[in-house]
Fold this sequence. Notes:
The protein folds into 5 domains: about 5-205, 3-Layer(aba) Sandwich (Rossmann fold); about 210-405, P-loop containing nucleotide triphosphate hydrolases (Rossmann fold), CATH 3.40.50.300; about 410-510, Orthogonal Bundle (Arc Repressor Mutant, subunit A); about 540-610, DNA polymerase, domain 1 (Orthogonal Bundle); about 630-730, ATP-dependent DNA helicase RecQ (Arc Repressor Mutant, subunit A). By secondary structure, the protein is of the alpha/beta class. It has 34 helices and 17 strands.
Amino acid sequence: MNTAEMTPSVALSRFFGFNEFKGEQEEVVECVLRGQDSFVIMPTGGGKSMCYQLPALMLEGTAIVVSPLIALMKNQVDAIRGHHEEDSIAHFLNSSLSKADAMQVREDVSTGLTKLLYVAPESLTKEDNINFLKSIRISFVAVDEAHCISEWGHDFRPEYRRIRAIVKQIADVPIIALTATATPKVQTDIQKNLEMKDAMLFKASFNRENLFYEVRAKKDAMKQIVRHAKKHAGKSGIIYCLSRKKVEEIAELLQVNGIKALGYHAGMDAHQRSSIQDQFLMQDVDIIVATIAFGMGIDKPDVRFVIHYDMPKSLESYYQETGRAGRDGGEGHCIAFYSHRDIEKLEKFLHGKPLAEQEIGHQLLQEVMAYAETSMSRRKFLLHYFGEEFDELNGPGAMNCDNMANPPKMRDGQEEVHLILSLILEHKQNFRSPFITGVLCGEENREIQDYKGTESSFWKRGEDHKPRHWNGIIRQSLVLGLIRKEIETYGTLKITDRGMDFLTNPKPVLVAEERDFSDVDVLDSMSQTRSGEGGALDAKLKSLLTSLRKELADEESLPPYVILQDLSLDEMAIHYPITEDELLRISGVGSGKAKKYGVPFLELIQAYVTEEGIERDSDLLVRSSSSRSANKVHIIQRIDRKIDLGDIARDLNMSREDLMNEIEGIVSAGTRVNLDYILDNTLDDDSLEELFDFLRDSEDEGVEALVEEYGDVYSEEEMRLARIKFLSEYAN
C-alpha cells in the first residue's frame, strides 16, 4: 500500500507505531491532507509535531517547517529519524551546517528523499534559499511556535512577522500554524498576520492534569532545591533562573552535593550549549540549571520536575516552561519560588523601553503576581488566563496544586465583590486594578489625584484591609467571570453581563483570602505517578532494557528516548515480546523502529524469559559551594594594577554588570579589594560617609535598600562601588 492510499490511522501505526491519535490530532491531519489552512493551539506535550509530521510523510513533496531554534530543529530531526531507516527522511537547513552538509541536504530534498525540511525564519529571507525552495515541490508550510508572531506573546520574534510574505514568494501552499501558548489576544494576532482568518481552528485543552503546580516563598530556596534534587535522585529536572550568575551558582551547589547537574546560558558558545543539551538528553546529567535560553530547545519526555528559582516575565513563559515536565504523561512537579522583590527587578528591566512595550510588560508581570499570590486553584487560574473554563473540584487533575492540596478557608465575599464592581461602574470602567484598590484604601498617589479618586463615594471605604486583600477580590472576580480585563487598554477593568446581573441581584459568592508570602507553609506534595497498564511491570527486566537502550543511544550519539520511550520499555517489561510481530504491538514501536532497533531488545527479552523461567501469557545535609569566581585571580590582579573596570570587563569578555557581580562575589567571600582609584573620581569623602552610615544601619544584604534610599542622588554603580569598599574595609 502506498502512502497516498493510507488512512491517517494506518499511517500512524506504520510510521510511528501508535494505534490511536491524541485529542484532535487526527482531525488536524485530515485538514492538512485536504490542503486547508489550519491553526493548532495545543499544550506542550499534547502532540503538536505529529499534526504536521504525519501528513508530511503521507503527501507528495517536502513539508517546510519554520522553527525558531537550531536546538529544537536538531531534536525534531533526530526524533523522526529514530522512527525511520533512512536519515534523509528529515533535515534542517540553517547556519550550523557546513557547506558540504548544506549541499547534501539540498540534494536529498531535490531528489524527493526528504519529507520534512526544518528552517529558521532568518533562513527564509536569504535569496538563495528562496530560489532553492521555489525549485522543489512543497506539500505545505508548518509555522511552529507561532506565538512568536505576536508582541503580546512571550517570545516575540520580529522576523516571524515576515513569514507569510516570503511563503507567497515561494509557493501557493497551505499553512499550518502551531503554538502551545496562545491567549485570545495572541491567537487573533497570529491569524491576522498569517492571513489565516478562514483557517480551521483546533484548540485543545490547556489542562496538563499530570502536572502538580506549587508556589513557595523564596526563603532558603537554594537549600530547598538541593533537598528536592537529592530526594528525587536520578530523575530529570530543569531549574530556571533569570541571571547567568545564579545559573552557575546553583549548578555548582548541586554538583558539590553529589548531584549530576550542569549550567546552561547564552554566554556559552554554541558548541558548549549543544554538548550540555546532548548530555541532558542522553541522561548523562540529571539536572540542567538554565536561563530561558534553554526554553524551546528541549523535547525530552521524562522531565520529572521544573523549578523556577525566579518567576518568569509572563504566564505564557511559565506555562511553556512548566510544560517541559511530564510530557510522557507521568509525574511532573512544578515548583516556583516567589518574592515580590523579584517582580520589582523585572519591572526595572522595562525602564527605557518604548512606552507601549513597557505597558505590555507591566501587564504581563501583574498576571504573574496574581498567579503567585492567589489562593484559588492554580489550574483554574491558568486555564482561565488561556480562555478555558475548569471545574476546580471535579476536573481532571483538580487536586494537583498546593492550594487545592492545602485549601484556604472560604467565606462569603458578596459585600466585597459588590463594592468592587460598584466602584468600577462609578468610574465608568476606565481604570485598572491599582486605581480601584488605591481609592478603596485611601492612597493619595498621582493617578488618583489627577482623576479625582479622592472625591469618589468609595474613597477609603476599604481602608480596613490592605491593597493585597482587594487585589485578591479582583482576581477572584475575574476568574468568576464577573469582570474582565480589556487587553488593548493594558488591563482596564470592565464589568461583564454576569457582573451586571450580580450588581442588580447580589448573591452569596465564595472567596478565599490571598496567601501572605511573608509566612507561607512550604508544602511537599507530589503528583501521582503513572503506573503501567495490563499487568505487573517486571522491574528487573525494565532495568536491563533501560541499560540496553543507553548503550544503543551512546553508540549512535542519540538521546535514549529517541531509541525507545519509557512507555515502550514499560510495556515490554509487562508483556515480554519475543517476536517482531509482538514488538510491533508495543506502543511507540513502528516497523522502522522495529527493524532498526528491535533485534537486540528481542534477544535480551528472550534470554531473560528463558533464564528466569517466565511463563509469558530526615532533612538532607546541604553542602555549601565555594563562591570563588573562576575569574577571581585575574580580576584582583587587574584591580591591583588600577585598570579601568570597562577594560577589565572587555579583557575577560564579560559585561560591566557581570564584572560588578563578580567583584561583589569576591568581596562577599572574604577577599578585600581596593577600588579607591575609581571612587576618588566619583564620590567625595562626605558622600562615602553618608552611604557608609546607611550601610552600617541597614539589615538589607544587597544593594536594593541603598538604591531605594539614594537612587535619586547617586548612580547604582556608585552605590555598588561604595558598598564594595564598605565590605572590604569593615567586613573583610
